[in-house]
Amino acid sequence: MTTAVAHPPVDSHEGEHHEHPAWLAHHFDDAEQQFDAGKLGMWLFLVTEVLFFSGMFCAYALYRNRNPEVFEFCSTFLNEKLGAINTGVLLFSSLTMAWAVRASQLRETKTLIGMLAATLGCAAIFLGVKAVEYSHKWGLGLLPGNLYKSQIEGAPHSEVPYLWYLCIPPLVLLVCFVLYYVYGVVAASKFHLRIAGPLVVAAGCYFAGVGLGVFLESGEEHSSEHASAGHDEHAAGHDHSEDHAVVKPKVDFLGTTTGPLNDVAITPAESATPESDVNQKGMAGLFFSIYYCMTGVHAIHILGGMLVITWLIVKAANLEFHSKYYGPVDNVGLYWHLVDFIWIYLFPLLYLIT
Amino acid sequence: MSVVTNPVTMPAPIAEAGKEDNYLTHSSGFLSWALTLDHKRIGVMYLVCIMSAFALGGTLALLIRLHLWNPNLDPTQALFSNKQYNQIFTLHGAVMVFLFIIPSIPAALGNFLLPIMLGSKDVAFPRLNLGSFYLWIVGAIFFLFSIFATGLDTGWTFYTPYSIESQGPVVAATMGVFVLGFSSIFTGLNFIVTINTMRPPGMTWFRMPLFLWAVYSTSIIQVLATPVLGITMLLLAAERVLGIGIFDAKLNGDPVAFQHFFWFYSHPAVYIMILPAMGIISELMSVHSHKGIFGYRMIAYSSVAIALFGFLVWGHHMFTSGMADVTTIVFSALTFTVSIPSAIKVFNWVGTMYKGTVSLNTPMLYALAFIFLFTIGGLTGLSLGALSTDMHLHDTYYVVAHFHYVMMGGTLVAFLGGLFHWWPKMTGKMFNDFFGIVSAAIVFVGFNLTFLPQFVLGTRGMPRRYASYQIEFQDLHRMSTIGAVMLGIGLLVALVTLIHSLMFGKKAPRNPWGGATLEWECSSPPPHDNFSSAPSVGDPYEFGNIEYDSKSGGYVKKK
Amino acid sequence: MSAPTQEHSHDALGHGHGHGHDGEFSHPMPIWMLLTVFVALLALTVLTVYQSTFSLGNIEVWLSLTIATVKAGLVIAFFMHLLWDKPLNAIIILSSLVFVALFLGFTMMDAQGYRENLIMKPTLDDSQPAAMDVPVSK
Q1: Residue A160 near residue A139, CB atoms below 8 Å
Q2: Which of A41, A63, A281 faces B125 most closely, judged by CB atoms?
Q3: How distant is the alpha carbon of residue A116 from its chain centre?
Q4: I want to staple B401 with a disulfide (CB 3.0 to 4.6 A). Which of B187, B268, B455, C73 is the partner?
Q5: Helix, strand, coil % over all residues of chain B, rounded to 5
Q6: pLDDT digits (tens, 9 = 90+) for A320-353
Q7: How far is A266 from chain C (nearest CA, A)?
């Protein structure tokens, strides 16, 4: 723990640059220059990310400005409870990430790995909840653009168990990570255990997110039923209350719909806009295009973040970070906060339209 | 960023063993190139690949011109079918823009020169640098795929709605553009960080060679504009795969929005193409006039100004696309602002030559050709930026001629000039100056013969991208085709001159032209580490203490 | 660029690196500050959800965007410790917002202008009900 150099330097010019430790690249003069360069590079990369997302925000602004009623109609299909929870989860992951940066600066390796694991876990919860949201919408035919199915009573609904499909890759990963953990135990390798532990927890967190999503999504019909009534009836109970005349479909946690069909489309019809105008491919479909593009690209960024956080955990388990070399943690942190930053805007813009 | 030093170039330098160590001989074997982190080798690999892309794009251009030798009013008699013609001009445009011009100067010459001119050992992120090279390769593979697949026929601009309906491999091409965009972003990011953080002591901002100012400005555009192209291409791919409808009028999408998205990148991209060329010309003018650059600061500032103004004018590509009247007027007015920094540069280059000792060698002739051609290209741009004349000239050969004067007469000619200028530094070999001059002359005449008639064609109403034309345009089209063949011959002469120098060229001295920037202080070709000790940084355009040394055949610093 | 706290990370390396630098450039954030920012962010999230339950018309989107911007500002200033970072990095990230504004501004301005020329298909006109999805309400 006292030595920063875990591996012998691989620099062939070791003779020339004998002052260079392994963590300092040969073309940098000192640790601070290396850190500044990495950090500036990261900020520039974040600039590209901001502009990358700006295209979708531009599309959003164009169509919301043109058809505000479509956005009002469609956002009733989004479960704002799940959105709010995901916001909280991401904010918490930002906290743990910032904490991880602090731990890396102070060489608190245990805290560092713990915080990185928490960040990874939050990311997994976020994706789990997102998987429930997506599969639920796919089941209802709330698909982008041309694939959109008008939300009317009697329309056929998909029986495809989308949520199962979305659970297969994490399940495979979970099994792999558990095996890896077992390997770590057998080999009695602290290094491997330090890595495998967080990975197992993260993969498990995905299913916790799915469970949470399923639990809350069962109240989805409520929120959409009541959306046009001014959101004032958010009762405490999430069960299918009996006081509704219309028999609601039961969307089970696999995203498949059973029972009479969801008539969520009916409620907005009572508002000023004729429903037939908005409830079609070129209107609501366009909203869902934007919704899927924005949240989908954001989710891809979460996945990318999870990969680099895993890389950080490996490096942290290898005891590589210290007060002169914590740039990777700091830079991944910046990236992670930006992903959070984007979500901070996505949440009110997509979920909270009244 | 942790950057471990190159594990590939393991063999220790054999400097003492008689043979001089340089970046080319530092290590050998395929992997020592394929996995190199040395910016010089990456620059050379870029150069080879980019020139191959240029050869491909140039061949396609010749095919276009050969097709237009005849009016083709009867399609059965034509060299290519109309469909094939559409594919050929699409690929010509896409290959030239995305595979050649955008990476040409920054990625090839910039990579090689930037750290040396700056006096640093490497770029800030050598692995990212290698990564962007391989991204370029991947993007190029996507493009080659779209050539050998059913054929892309949307034009390089991928305008919707046609790109949604076209039978061509639009998704492959958009993914190619997406990947190439990231290659470009990472190159730009790397250069900005390098210039900001890797300058050695004494290298202040205003002691930087103007080529670096130009590359820096280019990098700003690459970082700021290219991501928008990335998302545009992703949305277009999603449009084709899923039918998301954002740009599809059939689903109430907005095709004009696509053009806004596209030109928000692609207009600044025009400055990605031309700014580094301007940087090269600043170097060439000063070195080959053996006189300090006139108006250093103004040239430096105008590079940044062009980069920033470039973001304000994209709407002038869309005057006839259904934009609102007020926006067209605003964009038209803003367009003229770009001409100010451009004119400042031309004025300063001419001012640099005044009372200088001008050596009329190959690089300088290319530089002079640049000034002539770029000025024509720039001035004809004014009539396209003006709303009223653009309504008439939009989508005619006038536009084709205009941007070829800027892109080819500007960027390509400057690229060739820069290539000849730094060729001795890159390869350690002198080329035959006579044949270089011949190539410059043929390129200049051939270029004008190709594109001057196109201005006339355009004003007379010949639309661009048409596979056939009225008989009255035939003479001008034939002039253009003859010019294109001549241009091709000129470029071949240049290529042969360079290849000949590799085999039979004299050994290049350290400083063959009498330049004062840092790259002339290290040997030709430069050693693996560029500078064994930090170089002393002086004024990059101070020639007073440099004199010709007949012993070495190059220039040396006065003792 | 002062450290947000008096805490100093100990130099675990024990040796300098020969360039005369002090070499200490890390500024660990104090835990209380991280937690405070997190609580503030949560509170603002609750506020924005609560705010959306009122019908405020046109202001609403601007209000929620303002709250989002405050949140984003907190994240950038503290979690991304931009307040203690080099000014250049702050300029860079803020200038990106300028270019986003430019992009959105011009495009939106233009879209407003040509809006009257748009033909929405299927039309929004009441006289032409979209036959394909007649609502079956109630």
Answers
A1: yes
A2: A41
A3: 16
A4: B455
A5: 70, 0, 30
A6: 999 889 999 999 999 999 999 999 999 999 998 8
A7: 5
